[in-house]
Amino acid sequence: MREFAAGRGGRPKTKKGQDLKYFKLYLNYLRPHKMALLLGFLAIPIITVVHLLQPVLIKVGIDRDIANSDLDSLAITALWFGLCVVVELICRSLQSYLFQKTGIQSVTALRKDLFEHILQQSSTYYDKTPVGQLTTRVSSDIEALNETFSSGVITLLADILNIIGIAGIMFYLSPRLTLYTLAFV
Question: What is the pTM of this model?
């Protein structure tokens, strides 16, 4: 997109406004990868659920199965625990692959467009613009944008779901203890 490499006149005055504008433009490069993004985002709640089930299954195994010396139930609980671990591993791996692939492809397309835009500039543009500024914009700024998408936004969303899930399980297990805990946090 040419707007990424636009001159000073087209840029917003505040850094926050500039970042938002660049992020919106970056979304245009993510559009061809809608299905991969959708699958990656759908994996987040699945990962959260199977991740949060693991300590609950350990609790069931100890409090119910071991306490009652029921080895058959303990084996079933252990199988459920193993299934949760495998599902979490598969979903995390798939999610990581999809987001990394999408990030690499979108950054490649963005860099290609920027390179074509830079080549179309007149020689006076190169006289006024330091080479280091162009190099920094095309390499590190775009990579920072990709990193924000591929790990920052995804991690934030997953962490919010985890906190909500943990609080929900805590309320289910012991509402009184949960309220005490949350009062001190």
Answer: 0.76
Q: Residue holding tokens 């979108």? A: 106
b/e code 39-70 from CB counts within 10 Å (16+ = b): ebbebbebbbebbbbeeebeebbeeebeeeee
Q: CA 164 → CA 44, 45, 56, distances in Å?
A: 13, 11, 15
Place of tokens 């992020």: 23
CA distances from 159 to 34, 73, 151, 166, 168 (A): 22, 32, 12, 10, 14
Q: Which pLDDT tens digit goes with each residue over 30-61?
A: 899 999 999 999 999 999 999 999 999 999 99
CA–CA distance, 30 with 146 (Å, rounded to integer): 11
**C-beta of residue 146 within 8 angstroms of C-beta of residue 106:** yes
